[in-house]
Amino acid sequence: MSEPRDYLEMSFRSIQCFSNDGRLDVQELGELLTIAERDGVIDDNEIRVLKKIIAHLKPEEIDPAMRDKIAEVAKKIGA
After folding, report:
1. CA separation for the pair 52, 64 (Å, rounded)
2. Model confidence over 63-77: pLDDT tens digits?
3. Count of the separate structural domains present in the chain
4. CA 75 to CA 49: how far, in whole Å?
């Protein structure tokens, strides 16, 4: 069985999300989480990518909805 490559898709999609308007919105973060979860397991590479994406968010970009989504992601990845 080959290694899952969802983390590569997540990385590519995050670049597209940030490049379209310079920001990541709640829906886009949700879509990235969906990619990570689609095989039923969020693996170490996907966790690494999600953490890196969240680390790129600026404080002024984090509204209450984004804060809630970040908390959801953190709970699912054990951060």
Report:
1. 20
2. 999 999 999 999 999
3. 1
4. 15
